[in-house]
Amino acid sequence: MFLACALAMNALIGDRGLAETLRVRTQLQRMTVELAKLKRENARLAEYAERLATDPHTIEGIARGELGLIRKGEVLVLVKDVPSR
């Protein structure tokens, strides 16, 4: 009887028991979701890198937006906010 109880307790809460199995399954599900998210992000970044390497409009958008560059013949107009009184 004692041996049967000890084996049952080990099956429920031991190193490879039911509680540990459930915890590992939950962790596996979370990691699977995270992996799918990272794969989508990786695909998005790969597409963006491809556009940066090949699409002149994307490159121009970066040059204008982040670097503040203008084309030859364009006039740069800076607008300064005036604090209201």
Structure description:
By secondary structure, the protein is mainly α. It has one domain (2-65). Helices cover 69% and strands 0% of the residues. It is built from three helices and no strands. It has helices at 2-13, 18-54, 56-65. The chain is elongated, with a radius of gyration of 30 Å. The termini are far apart.
Radius of gyration: 30 Å
Ends: how far apart? 87 Å
Number of strands: 0
How much of the sequence lies in strands comes to under 5%
Give a quick summary of the entry.
This protein is mainly α.
Q: Which properties best describe this structure?
A:
single chain; 85 residues; mainly alpha; 3 helices; 69% helix
Ordered list of secondary-structure elements with their pairings:
Layout: H1 2-13, H2 18-54, H3 56-65
